[in-house]
Amino acid sequence: LSICSRTVEPLEYYRRFLKENCRPDGRELGEFRTTTVNIGKCLRSITTADGSALVKLGNTTVICGVKAELAAPAVDSANKGYIVPNVELPSLCAERFRSGPPGEEAQAASQFIADVIENSQMIVKEDLCIANGKLAWVLYCDIICLDYDGNLLDASVFALLAALKNVQLPLVTINEETGLSEVNLKQKNPLIIRKHPVATSFAVFDDTLLIVDPTAEEEDLATGTVTVVTDEEGRLCSVHKPGGSPLTGAKLQDCITRAITRHKEVKKLIDKVIKSITPK
């Protein structure tokens, strides 16, 4: 298979591989790229964050930093804190992105992350409340893509979860006499993570063929994509399908089954890394 045909007729080039149940990068259709995660103190570059993680999915590299700040709760949610996710796709991560305000893809990714947080109940906003109607935590979750080669959503959800698992919040109390908040930096507690959502993305080729963990090239050639988010109980948290080829119920069920298997792999990877950095 010549490089020329890949440039001139990329779809035909791919189809030749797919007929043989493999892909140009050597992977099988259901095979993920090598996945690595670094958490917290491994990342000296963002020491100002309260929690951080760097995830690599093949060449796709995403960093997540979580910053915790204090604020008054909203009037209509007096017993809740806030979680504010933001996905950035800077021009340095791929030629397709431009400098300036967030583009459509970054906005869609930020909304997807917000939906995952809400639907999975990974963090219950009531847990972020310190004093009802007076004080709560705001978690700013900045997810920045450093190198884009497809499957941004899986990498982003993974980086977010790993960074949140690394957050330690200081003890905060409100002084009864002065009414002011007092922060005890010597006493820190980990964030309460109620659920561990993991995203698994698929590209759809020629309306029928599913391939897992697509590269940027595969996403561009696909007739559609679908992302399935599950938690550790195998519960379906969300299905994200931005247009493209419709999927039969059987195909969607196949995606969900594969996503549940992928969840176990990702959870095992996070647990292993956290164990390696936890003081004995």
UniProtKB/TrEMBL annotation:
An annotated GO cellular component: cytoplasmic exosome (RNase complex)
A Pfam family of this chain: RNase_PH_C
Domain Exoribonuclease phosphorolytic as annotated: residue spans: 31-170, 197-260
Highest taxon, organism lineage: Eukaryota
PANTHER family from the UniProt entry: EXOSOME COMPLEX COMPONENT RRP43 (PTHR11097:SF9), EXOSOME COMPLEX EXONUCLEASE RIBOSOMAL RNA PROCESSING PROTEIN (PTHR11097)
Homology family: Belongs to the RNase PH family.
UniProt protein name: Exosome complex component RRP43
Originating species: Poecile atricapillus (Black-capped chickadee)
